[in-house]
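This section describes the prediction task in plain terms. A model, or a person checking by hand, is given the sequence of a single protein chain and must write out its three-dimensional structure as a string of tokens. No templates, partner chains or ligands are provided. The sample shown here is typical of the held-out split.
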Amino acid sequence: MKCNVAVVFMHDYLDGDLAREDTLQLQQHLKHCPACLSRYESLERTDAFVKAMPMEKAPDNLSYRIMKSLPSSRRPAAWTSWVRRHPAVSAAAIFMVVMLSSFVSMWNQSQELSVSGPDLEHVVFEGRTVIVPAGQKVTGDLTVVNGDVQVLGDLEGNLTVIDGSVKPLASTAHIAGQVKTIDRAVDWFWYKVSSYFGTLAYGS
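The expected answer:
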């Protein structure tokens, strides 16, 4: 499998749209290609970050503000023809505006603690610290935003911490899945932009 095909498969796999046979080919490729493995891990962290973000409805006047920010043209017909001749550049420009708007909106949100997962019955909260107590088992993935995590018991899934930290594991702790930390939203933003343009380049 070529790397450009692997990149397309990565996005489909993270979206849950990749066929089983293609999934096996992708996994085999990642075992032998460190560059693609690094790219996949970055995409996986980005995907976890995006899924943990609260969904925000776009302002009603967003389309108007975008159109108003575009430079006026004395020859609308020429500008329209340029857009038709360069659809990829036009799409990239719109993507940048929308991503920047989402990024600003994210930073304007309150930095409240957010915890998500299928099994939170035995999870304990102490201030901004999320604790899996000793002797307790939490099933499924656990995602914590704007807080610290301390695992004293069992976590049967992945642990993702965004803008927080994972305290040293106790001797009684056990995490069955992977532990991921995403600390810098700016890195996420620029990686999201670069991965988007990389996909465009491979697709062209």
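For orientation: The longest strand covers residues 129-132.
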